[in-house]
Amino acid sequence: MPGSQSKPTGLLDTVAGMADQPLTARGAATHGRILDVATREFAEHGIAGARIERIVAEARTNKAQLYAYFGSKEGLFDAIFAGSLERIVNVVPVDATDLADWAVRLYDEYLRRPDLIRLATWARLERRPTGHLVAEVDRLDDHKLRAIADAQAEGIVRPGDPFDVMAMVIAMSMAWSPVSNVYAASAGEPEELHGRRRALLRDTVRRAVTTG
Prior knowledge:
Layout: H1 11-19, H2 25-49, H3 52-58, H4 63-70, H5 73-91, H6 99-112, H7 114-126, H8 142-153, H9 162-173, H10 191-209
Helix pairs in contact: 2-3, 2-5, 2-7, 4-5, 5-7, 6-7, 6-9, 6-10, 8-9, 9-10
């Protein structure tokens, strides 16, 4: 209709549209190999440093097939990045009544999948150096902010902007993350060491953001 405005298409909508394309069993296997290999490539080298030649060689495919699935190197990164955001949301759901436990679960996820936090860091460095990590239409934190606001209303979480509270908890959970400029932890370290960090993180977050 004249004068009407369509809803802005964001990263997640674009990737979802690409994923709707039907694939044969063989095509699905190739698609999956490309994503697995490219995740490692982008996590290690970033968007600019990643090389399509290395990806297709390790994934046992060719450039034509990769571009048919993802359109471009940027499109391939979009698919991987969107998947990493959704994994963090789904695997580590927020519990605003116990943000200290949420921080610890985030810590554990960074140990399991260090590539995910590296992808987010490359996106910050190469795409959005200021403001939110993704465009407004792609943000997945609305339910987290509502949960924190509800916990604040119940007197469980300290007053303040729910976004700032969430950002503080996430920042504390990343104290030993793979992109820490102080110390990057790894899953190969002794469990006793991880246990001490979890205990410190849990106590620090509880003191910082909870009431009472």
